[in-house]
Amino acid sequence: MLIQNGTSGFIHPHSSEITPESACLQRREFLQRAAAGGMALASGGAWAQGNVFAGLQSMPAAVSTLAGARAADKPTPFADASGYNNFYEFGLGKEDPARNAQAMAVRPWTVRVEGLVNKPQTFDMDALQKLSAQEERIYRMRCVEGWSMVIPWIGYSLAKLLAKVEPQGSAKYVEFVTLADPQSMPGLRRAVLSWPYTEGLRLDEALHPLTLLTFGMYGHELPKQNGAPVRIMVPWKYGFKSPKSIVAIRLVESEPRTAWNKAARNEYGFYSNVNPEVPHPRWSQATERRIGEGGLLTPKRKTQLFNGYEAQVAQLYAGMDLRKNF
């Protein structure tokens, strides 16, 4: 059965009043200037919502808890996690996704897994969800804008899916392609990013057990504004590295071009590991504000290297210059 956390009657408050981060505003201003100037940047960002109870019958029965992946922090209230989002296909404001994503259809839905694999396949959601037993994992999520959340996600390690398609020896990277539907996504009318939004990981990052193919949160199916019906969660990287509403996964030989890296290469590197010692060109990354913990007057937290997952993932970057390879 699904894990229940006692949360019901979900609402979406004016989350912009909770933590109006100046870093968030600066980033939004960058996007608005790009849109106003007709600036075509590159591969857009995906994030979504809907009736959180819809389709629960299709969620797998076995949901367990991976204790080793738990964050010690208190989970962010559901209303904040589902009402304060970046999903630029639905608008630049934090409340736009929850308001505008309802028109996005999440059934039927398929995900193509293709490229340098021996067994390329197209999965419908039922097949994808039944491919492996799902677990609840409570992960920290750190946004590049300087705010953070703690969210209980539901899914299974992406490695389970990749094993099914058998990556070839020449595959070195994984590219993710997200939905770009002009009829349901009003944000596509603005050329702030190149659509569809794409992201990428090195193959060893994608195969790491913490990299989660995600179908739910807080014991329920993903809301549309949070990336329904399926997204990726990479907890040691900034949030934009965890693409939402995925329609294709490609294994490739060369480092793929990604949305934010193409939009502003000097600001958003391919790796984008959480690192308090590497500031964004326009703000520090040394501290963060936890959404849902008292708002603007709450003292900021110190940001942790790899978002607190150093013991699990540091070996992936042994010998690398984390300032150069940001």
Written description of the protein model:
With 326 residues, this protein is α+β, with helices and mostly antiparallel strands. Helix content is 16%, strand content 21%. The chain contains eight helices and 13 strands. The chain has helices at 22-36, 78-83, 96-100, 125-130, 158-165, 203-206, 259-263, 310-313, and strands at residues 63-65, 110-115, 121-124, 134-142, 147-157, 173-178, 198-202, 212-217, 220-221, 231-233, 246-252, 287-290, 301-302. The longest helix has 15 residues, at 22-36.
> What is the chains' assembly state?
single chain
Q: Separation of termini?
A: 40 Å
Helical run tally: 8
Order of helices and strands: HEHHEEHEEHEEHEEEEHEEH
Radius of gyration: 18 Å
Q: What's the overall geometry? A: globular
Structural class: alpha+beta
Largest beta-sheet characterization: 8 strands, mixed
Average pLDDT taken over every residue? 84
Relative strand content:
15-25%
Q: Level of helix content?
A: 10-25%
Q: Which residues form runs of ≥5 with pLDDT under 50?
A: 1-24, 33-63
Topology:
Elements: H1 22-36, E1 63-65, H2 78-83, H3 96-100, E2 110-115, E3 121-124, H4 125-130, E4 134-142, E5 147-157, H5 158-165, E6 173-178, E7 198-202, H6 203-206, E8 212-217, E9 220-221, E10 231-233, E11 246-252, H7 259-263, E12 287-290, E13 301-302, H8 310-313
